[in-house]
């Protein structure tokens, strides 16, 4: 599957549709070249691996008591370090990130995830390597 976004529910955006078409075309081009026997050299790529989903701070009744801090809003895939602002309570108190390592949040403050009790997803940046690749079918 391919998910290209974010975009609001029920909205068709030309720029997002164009990105989706490009990634599907690249995928199909790869399949064609692979099937034709092209050899692909070894490579490495950085990816983001999901660590955990993080909920909003809540009171004992399960009600949200803080929002995403303005410095975190719209910072998907950017490093979040220990002590960086994370949430802002309705009283104006900053709740910092308390972690042992730098993480890369994504899906920050997405409307579709409120009902799933998800403020954002913490990811870690890792490097994947692949050996050369070539179809064994002639």
TrEMBL record:
Q: Which positions are tagged coiled coil?
A: none
GO CC terms in record: cytosol
- InterPro entries to which the protein is assigned, alphabetical: AspA/AstE_fam, Aste_AspA_hybrid_dom
Question: What Pfam families does the record point to?
Answer: AstE_AspA_hybrid
- One function term, GO molecular function aspect: hydrolase activity, acting on carbon-nitrogen (but not peptide) bonds, in linear amides
AstE/AspA barrel-sandwich hybrid domain location: 44-125
What name does the UniProt record give this protein?
A: ACY2 Aspartoacylase
Gene source species: Daphoenositta chrysoptera
């Amino acid at each position: 599957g391919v998910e290209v976004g974010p975009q609001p529910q029920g909205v068709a955006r030309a720029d997002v549709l164009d990105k989706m078409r490009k990634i599907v075309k690249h995928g199909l081009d790869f399949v064609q070249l692979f099937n034709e026997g092209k050899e692909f050299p070894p490579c490495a790529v950085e990816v983001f691996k999901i660590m955990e989903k993080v909920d909003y701070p809540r009171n004992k009744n399960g009600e949200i008591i803080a929002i995403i801090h303005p410095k975190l809003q719209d910072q998907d895939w950017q490093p979040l370090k220990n002590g960086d602002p994370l949430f802002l309570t309705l009283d104006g108190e900053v709740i910092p990130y308390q972690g042992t390592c730098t993480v890369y949040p994504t899906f920050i403050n997405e409307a579709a995830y409120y009902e799933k009790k998800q403020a954002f997803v913490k990811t870690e940046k890792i490097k994947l390597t692949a050996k050369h690749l070539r179809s064994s079918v002639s």
